[in-house]
Amino acid sequence: MSQIPPTPTNLRGAVDLSALVNRPAPGQAAAPGAAAGGENAAAGEPLPLPSLFFEGTDANFNDFIDLSMRVPVVVHLAATWAEPSAQLSPVLDRVTASLDGRLVQVKVDVDANPQLAQAFQAQSVPAVAALVAGRPVQLFVGALPEQEIRDVFAQLLELAAQNGVTGTVAVEGGAQPEGAEADAAEPAPEPLPPHHAEAYAAIERGDYATAIAEYKTAIAQDPRDAMAVAGLAQVSLLARLAGKTADEIRSAAADAPTDVDAQLGVADLDLSGGHVEDAFDRLLSLFPTLDAAGKEAVRSRILDYFEIVGVEDPRVAKARARLASLLY
């Protein structure tokens, strides 16, 4: 886990996202109340917003950069196909709602917003970052326990205060912030099966080998366990990328355009960053040039990607048809 230092004094050296994202086109709706609220609220007064929770896109994100001049903005980089994203979301919502409007949360679908995924250098999901005074701060990657998230957010608020970002948000109309009543309104989720729970705990520790072994055991006990199959594919992807930088992976692929392992590595990187179609296209374009062993390696990796992305995803259907045409 990479957390912000406990006592940083400034944000110099951070990437300026305003150079990397597009402002909304004329007439396009902005993030609800984000920019307007900052102009209308008097200094020192709570900033009126319709919610503490927003959806961020490549088109509207500059509004949240503006908002971060008043109040810290937590950015949850997620993907619908990533089980840890779904597990992390309610925890983030609960922690955000408990902080009395001292920060807001923006959720970004990396598949639908590749520019933001690239701007935040999201090599895997879920990833959580923040904006403070218009500057990005990397917080953590993966689904952490709630208390650790509270500790990270406490450090974030200290950092914001050191940079003069001390505003608060008041939800307009006194409405209950989304997520504040989640525990009371919704039944407790079903506990994970034992091997899934062990795998998830291992992923939190960064122990991918144990997680892989747990998912394999679950599949051996029930070959129809679709969650275990998808979980195995996801954690195997994390294990392959662990300890490598994006620059190293892309340089290796550029230096060896016909090397199967190098191309598989950069396809992994593309998929983890939400560039699903790029990953599929890279491997499917390479496939016809390979020998039998290379084709089997690529076919197996693509099948893993199908599980990670989700078999009902239209991009999977398109890639599956293309793979079938190459095979037969």
UniProtKB/TrEMBL annotation:
Domain of life according to the entry: Bacteria
InterPro entries: Thioredoxin-like_sf (IPR036249), Thioredoxin_domain (IPR013766), TPR-like_helical_dom_sf (IPR011990)
Keywords attached to this entry: Redox-active center
GO cellular component, as recorded: cytoplasm
SUPFAM superfamilies assigned: Thioredoxin-like, TPR-like
Pfam families per the UniProt record, alphabetical: Thioredoxin, TPR_20
Coiled coil: none
Domain called Thioredoxin: residue spans: 19-158
Gene Ontology molecular functions: protein-disulfide reductase activity
Alphabetical GO biological process terms: response to stress
Similarity remark: Belongs to the thioredoxin family.
Protein name: Tetratricopeptide repeat protein
Organism listed in the record: Leifsonia sp. NPDC080035
